[in-house]
Amino acid sequence: MTKPSMNDLSLLPSLVDAVADMGYSEPTPIQQQAIPVVLAGRDLIACASTGTGKTAAFMLPVLQLLSAGDAGRCRALVLSPTRELALQIDEQAQALGYYIGLSAAAVVGGVDMGPQERALRAGAAMVVATPGRLLDHMRFDYVDLAGVEILVLDEADRMLDMGFLPDIQRILAALPQRRQTLLFSATMSPTIRKLADAILSDPVTVTVDRQGPAAAIAQSVFAVSQDRKSALLTRLLRRDGMDSVIVFVRRKIDANRLARAITRGGTNATSIHSDRTQEERIEALEGFRSGQYPVLVATDVAARGLDVSGISHVVNFDVPHSCDDYIHRAGRTARAGAAGDVITFVSPEEEERMATIERGLGARLPRHDVNGLVTRGEAHAGKPVASRGRRRRGSAQRKAGQQNA
After folding, report:
1. Are 99 and 14 in contact (CB under 8 A)?
2. Distance between CA atoms of 319 and 353, rounded to whole angstroms?
3. What is the rounded distance in angstroms from the CA atom of residue 229 to the CA atom of residue 114?
4. Rounded Cα–Cα distance for residues 120 and 133 (Å)
5. What class has domain 6-207?
């Protein structure tokens, strides 16, 4: 059977060359389904998770459509839930747009508005934005969205989860009624369906079924008390092959503490969460990508859409809240056909949540014995996150413990 090729999707030769230069020649399932729909000018609902190639699934056809029209004004708007995802989409837009002479601009919070204002005034063909920062600019007359022909809502479910619906509605009110709208979402909840019904016209729906982590991911569970997790992680990080590791925690206060504990244990680590400035987050990501920091400690919100190649391991220091969150975290590794490992630390208090996740995955994950990997002395020597929390049970600490990512 002949393998599918990018040449089969009616893309411009320059865009096919661009993708080939990036090392890809075979489209992913979401690209096979979505690209012809977008090129045909149809509205689209696409159910696809991060890691399925969805960014290229809308970026390639949108750029091709833009190449046929006038330059010098914003003709495509991409809305994204987080700064990191927006910057990664913009990076891909810049790389692909170079081949057809189209410009893109990222409009995100946490950085100076001046360069963004200049890009908006210059009329970048594509604007990739987080809703809040775009609204900041829309207070001024240099923002003109009247010429937007294509709107992309990426990770729409996460944007609604983060409370962006009112912001999205305000932005929609500034856009032309006649436009092409593409909605990408990992889930299709009633709220997402209601939004889609309100803003899309006769859409085509495509779905890439991703019920669990990629087959190339080796999954395992360590049953470990909360106060021994930090020492266990330090010991595991000394193993061969732990070259590029993302460690997920629930709270941003824990991200900083754990990164410091890992560094004290002999492995350089940094953290990313919503309390860090945009410059700090970019620095952390670039340090992680370059290998300066082999370990990145992250919260779910800050790491949403994080796309870093070559991640060898994902460690769930805290059990995720849901099976969807588990799959999202796992999707940071084993990208583009590579192998990867997902390790989950489960305390006795988290066993019920882990059982719910395993039911969602349809399998009980292999368990490993902690005995021999970490001693009681090691567990208490590092003063891990959880043990610090137990020593300070005052109201201020309880309040801090309620902080989300």
Report:
1. yes
2. 7
3. 44
4. 13
5. alpha beta
Q: Which residue has the tokens 């360069």?
A: 115
For the chain, report the end-to-end CA distance as a whole number of angstroms: 47
Closest CA to 252 of 92, 133, 129, 404: 404
SS3 218: strand
* Backbone torsions φ then ψ of 96, nearest 5 degrees: -75, -40
360-375 CB burial, b ≥16 within 10 A, e <16? ebeeebeeeebeebbe
Instruction: Enumerate the domain spans of the chain.
Output: 6-207, 217-401
Mean of all residue pLDDT scores within the chain: 85
* Closest by Cα among 182, 94, 74, 92 to 138: 74
Q: Report the run of H or E that residue 135 belongs to, with start and end.
A: helix 131-138
Q: In the prediction, which pLDDT does 405 show? A: 47
Find which of 24-33, 138-147, 272-281 is predicted with most confidence, using mean pLDDT. Answer: 138-147
Q: 188-204, pLDDT tens digit by residue? A: 888 889 999 999 999 99
244 to 26, 190, 341, 343: CA distances (angstroms): 26, 38, 11, 13
Query: What's the Cα-to-Cα distance from 362 to each of 217, 313, 324, 348, 357, rounded to whole Å?
Result: 15, 22, 13, 21, 9
The whole model's pTM is what? 0.66
DSSP for 28-91, please give it. -HHHHHHHHHHHTT--EEEE--TTSSHHHHHHHHHHHHHTTS--SS--EEEE-SSHHHHHHHHH
CATH superfamily assigned to domain 217-401: P-loop containing nucleotide triphosphate hydrolases (3.40.50.300)
Q: One fold for both 6-207 and 217-401?
A: yes
Q: What is the DSSP letter of 4?
A: P
Question: Can you read off the two tokens belonging to residue 265?
Answer: 């244990």
Q: How many CA atoms lie within 13 A of 194 on its CB side?
A: 6
Helices (runs of H) and strands (runs of E) counted in the chain: 18, 14
Q: Which two tokens stand for residue 172?
A: 């929609």
Q: How crowded is the C-beta side of 296, counted as CA atoms within 13 Å?
A: 32
Placement of tokens 């012809």 in the chain: 36
Spatial neighbors of 290 by CB under 8 A, at least 6 apart, are: none
d(CA 167, CA 196): 16
